[in-house]
Amino acid sequence: MPERVDLSTVTPALTLGALDGRYRSAVAPLIDHLSEAALNRARVQVEVEWLIHLTDTGAVPGAPILSDADKDYLRAVVTSFGADEIAELAEIERETLHDVKAVEYFLRRRLDAAPAVLGEGTALSAPGVAELVHIFCTSEDVNNLSYALLVRGAVTEVWLPAARSVVDALASLAGEHADAAMLARTHGQPATPTTLGKELAVLARRLRRQLERVAAAEYLGKLNGATGTYGAHVVSVPGTDWQEVSRTFVEHLGLSWNPLTTQIESHDWQAELYADVARFNRVLHNLATDVWSYISLGYFRQRLSAQGSTGSSTMPHKVNPIRFENAEANLEISCALFDTLASTLVTSRLQRDLTDSTTQRNIGSAFGHSLLALDNVRRGLAGLDVDGEAMARDLDGNWEVLGEAVQSAMRAASVAGAHGMANPYERLKELTRGRRVDGPAMREFIAELGLPDDVAARLLALEPASYTGLAAQLVADHLD
């Protein structure tokens, strides 16, 4: 057999995972937040802001005061971080074999270049300024703050807007069909009718509750040294209130200060957040499977233009519910990753181990599969049309579901003093259990019960399609 091409050598380099290949367009917004390059940019940001904070607070005696131009120059190192800087940092890391140390050396290079931009008088060229870069920091001081910034950005700027858009579309669909009567199926069997809108509203409300939890997430950070004791800080500069410097720095970054840690920030906030996102995923998975079932029952028709031109490679009549099936799979993968992240990150041996390092590099994949599922559900919902005739046929073919209404009315009439209402459940069971009952048979049965006239009239006027209780009102009252 001829030797085949080794695809790992092909240029440009091929992707290993589907998120960076087939599905890249759907998850691309996360790259600016959860990629390796984004992590390095965040590290540069933390180092820059720490240097500025130390000089602003006078925490280290002898450190110069930076001008606005000096600060702008430093912050521009972050905002201009692009392809050239990514390559340069990678080159430095090949020498240091340490990612955070590479960031330190990268920033020192920028300090060396400052006089050429700002003039020889810049405070950034003052003796000792370079030593403020990464001073009193362990790598985890930089990393925990960087990850908190990255995850917060990914959630608030990408994932939450996408999730809210899907839930809003679902809520709109629920409101539009709030009074569309539909046969319910408890345990997969015909049951008390409901409305399509009410069932969709249940899922929309569940999803919104989870979004409220995600939106309220707290992003914690710390900066307190190699074992969380401020040991190097206090020995080097004993006159500074290092807890206050740490607190104000973490809060300056927009994060919540964690005052008591080992070498690492404990990651509990991440576990809490990922559990909430995973729970949202699972409710969305429930939506996907329910909609799939409604499509199978014929309650929803799929518009071919919204699904693509090919439904099946061999059966041309088919329009497969691929959006919801793809969503299911990606939600399951996302949940598996989030569950692993949440369970792994809350444990670190003694004061530090490195299990969190490689684990956190999968945060982007966890959010990526969830974001991809959201894209599929959004497109799937947009391609649905409700088939009211199909729902009406199912309702009209299952008059036995009125058995609940009749036996409950008999019970209420008995309590009110009516005679001859004994054993209502058993009598309806005898009529309906395992049997199909049509309209005439049900009305004949009701007419022979001897119910009070007003109760009998109410039941005789009842049809499966009108037996939906307060379903439409519930949508109006409880779906914002």
From TrEMBL:
Keywords, ordered alphabetically: Lyase, Purine biosynthesis
Organism annotation: Georgenia deserti
Gene3D superfamilies, per database record: Fumarase/aspartase (C-terminal domain), Fumarase/aspartase (Central domain), Fumarase/aspartase (N-terminal domain)
InterPro entries assigned: Fumarase/histidase_N, Fumarate_lyase_CS, Fumarate_lyase_fam, Fumarate_lyase_N, L-Aspartase-like, Pur_lyase, PurB_bact, PurB_C
EC number: 4.3.2.2
PANTHER family registered for this protein in UniProt: ADENYLOSUCCINATE LYASE
Residue runs in coiled coils: none
Domain Fumarate lyase N-terminal: 21-327
Reaction(s) this enzyme catalyzes, per UniProt: N(6)-(1,2-dicarboxyethyl)-AMP = fumarate + AMP; (2S)-2-[5-amino-1-(5-phospho-beta-D-ribosyl)imidazole-4-carboxamido]succinate = 5-amino-1-(5-phospho-beta-D-ribosyl)imidazole-4-carboxamide + fumarate
Domain Adenylosuccinate lyase PurB C-terminal: 348-468
An example Gene Ontology molecular-function term: lyase activity
Highest taxon, organism lineage: Bacteria
One Pfam family recorded for the sequence: Lyase_1
Pathway info: Purine metabolism; AMP biosynthesis via de novo pathway; AMP from IMP: step 2/2; Purine metabolism; IMP biosynthesis via de novo pathway; 5-amino-1-(5-phospho-D-ribosyl)imidazole-4-carboxamide from 5-amino-1-(5-phospho-D-ribosyl)imidazole-4-carboxylate: step 2/2
Protein name: Adenylosuccinate lyase
Function (record text): Catalyzes two reactions in de novo purine nucleotide biosynthesis. Catalyzes the breakdown of 5-aminoimidazole- (N-succinylocarboxamide) ribotide (SAICAR or 2-[5-amino-1-(5-phospho-beta-D-ribosyl)imidazole-4-carboxamido]succinate) to 5-aminoimidazole-4-carboxamide ribotide (AICAR or 5-amino-1-(5-phospho-beta-D-ribosyl)imidazole-4-carboxamide) and fumarate, and of adenylosuccinate (ADS or N(6)-(1,2-dicarboxyethyl)-AMP) to adenosine monophosphate (AMP) and fumarate.
SUPFAM superfamilies for this protein: L-aspartase-like
Gene it is expressed from: purB
Family the entry assigns: Belongs to the lyase 1 family. Adenylosuccinate lyase subfamily.
